[in-house]
Design brief:
The protein has about 300 residues and is α+β, with helices and mostly antiparallel strands. It has eight helices and 18 strands. Helix 1 packs across helix 5 and helix 6 packs across helix 7.
């Protein structure tokens, strides 16, 4: 009897984060060639390449799944490439922060994540449309967008580099005033940062919205108001210990649609720096995307 194989496309970012899995291509072939999955591997060659490849595949080929091998930037490119074509996405976390993968409860151990991908259980999740792009994790403006920009320009990757940049910029940063339209209600306020969150964290288990869900049909709009610098360590402690929602400086509002006007034009989508965002419009797109996860996590994301 002929056994028909399903085609899973693996999109590998060869320069993602720490590249903890340096022989990942060989490991993929070794594991999946003995399964009913036929692996097809692409290595990205430039920023934005993953989105181009995934769009072509989703439109013309429609593989059984597309697997992002990298960090949140690679994941975001794959999401925007697949768009609303319905092809499920899997993730092999291989980046600096792996925010979405951590939120979904995905392991970094290759044997375990390969097993999850082989089983292929996928579930619908929300996306946030920001302008013409989609966010699946956390986007925003303010301090974290500035740090993301400096981090993107840095020659070194990883948590230590990110923290070093954040500390350096913190003492020079001045909160700015923003205009927010939240589900039709207008307000102005100064903010240290504003996050447009689908999931709970930036990455490295630094949680901005501990109770966020990627399938609840809402954006978590997280606004950190200006705070005395001497309270920064306490805020950082709360971020790391899943308690930031208890801070008097953070307000989380659940919304369907947001319009944000800022003094500058720099923002980030899932950690990827963008310009031209003096006015941002964000709206939730419910259940628009499918992600491969451990089946036992289906009620926990």
């Amino acid at each position: 009897m002929t056994r028909y194989k399903k085609c899973f496309v693996f999109i590998i970012n060869p320069v993602a984060g720490k590249r903890r899995h340096k022989n990942i291509e060989r490991e993929i072939y070794s594991y999946f060639l003995s399964t009913d999955i036929e692996p097809l591997i692409y290595q990205t060659q430039y920023a934005g390449h993953a989105a181009v490849v995934c769009r072509q595949l989703a439109e013309q080929f429609s593989p059984a799944a597309i697997i992002a091998v990298g960090g949140d930037g690679t994941v975001n490119e794959v999401v925007n490439g697949i768009g609303l074509y319905g092809v499920p996405m899997g993730i092999i976390p291989n980046g600096s922060g792996n925010g979405l993968a951590r939120h979904l409860g995905l392991p970094t151990n290759l044997e375990k994540i390969f097993n999850i991908i082989e089983k292929g259980y996928s579930t619908p999740v929300d996306l946030i449309r920001i302008g013409e792009k989609y966010s699946i994790n956390v986007s925003g403006v303010g301090f974290d967008a500035l740090v993301a920009r400096r981090f993107q320009d840095s020659l070194s990757r990883g948590l230590i580099s990110y923290v070093r940049i954040a500390v350096s910029e913190f003492f020079k940063y001045h909160p700015e005033e923003y205009e927010l339209m939240i589900d039709g209600k207008m307000n102005r306020q100064k903010a240290f940062l504003i996050s447009i969150a689908n999931s709970s964290q930036f990455g490295n288990n630094i949680l901005i919205s501990p109770k966020a869900s990627v399938c609840d049909g809402y954006i978590d709009l997280c606004v950190i108001s200006p705070f005395p610098k001497w309270t920064a360590l306490g805020l950082l402690y709360k971020l790391l210990c899943r308690k930031i929602n208890r801070s008097p400086y953070l307000k989380i509002t659940r919304a369907k649609k947001i319009r944000l006007k800022q003094p500058g034009n720099v923002y980030h989508i899932d950690g990827e720096v963008m310009e031209g965002g003096a006015v941002l419009e964000a709206e939730i797109v419910e259940g628009a995307f499918r992600v491969i996860i451990p089946e036992q996590r289906k009620n926990l994301i």
